[in-house]
Predict the structure.
Amino acid sequence: QLQLQESGPGLVKPSETLSLTCTVSGGSISSSGYYWGWIRQPPGKGLEWIGNIYHSGITYYNPSLKSRVTIAVDTSKNQFSLRLSSVTAADTAVYYCAGYCSSTSCYRISQNYGMDVWGQGTTVTVSS
Amino acid sequence: EIVMTQSPATLSVSPGERATLSCRASQSVSNNLAWYQQKPGQAPRLLIYGASTRATGIPARFSGSGSGTEFTLNISSLQSEDFAVYYCQQYNNWPITFGPGTKVDIK
């Protein structure tokens, strides 16, 4: 059973770069067929999709964040990462990593389509 | 970008009653629509995908319907553990987009 765990600093200064890592356990990041991605949730607000990456390196980003976001995958460590540059207070949120299944290869593992595996979330505060 | 809207914003329901939540897409998403449940302090949980298929382990009291631009999530008899926020999400097109959520609280 796939499990995800976010890690990274809980406090980032304005104008700096937020960096988070998601470690995948219970399966291979490159052979499971999932798109790996990030979703965030500002305090008291709804869910905002940030972006996804396939193990081949293909990425999809939220247009509103695209100029500041980089998602990368490290298959040797079974991890993927998020970098968000030039942060402001508006980037304060709980950041979740998640696996999104849209292919038969991941469906064979999970028996679900959609975002069926999530990390527990990590709170990132942008403040000086 | 496909914009998702949900109604109502808050739904007050008594335990044992039926809850009906609506989700609308700004353009057709076929049946590429998922529903998620989120409780305070927890990550979202996948309930429904393909507009009407329950995810693994989801009780039968949860059902989804619709296609194109109009979708519905029904909870047939609300249990105490069902009081939460529910989000719809389209994955027919990139970027993936979520609705703003419907909070189901105790009447």
Q: What stands out?
A: Chain B touches chain A at residues 1, 34, 36, 38, 42-46, 49-50, 53, 55-56, 87, 89, 91, 94-101 (CB under 8 Å). Chain B has a mean pLDDT of 97. Chain B is about 0% helix and 50% strand. The longest strand of chain B covers residues 19-25.
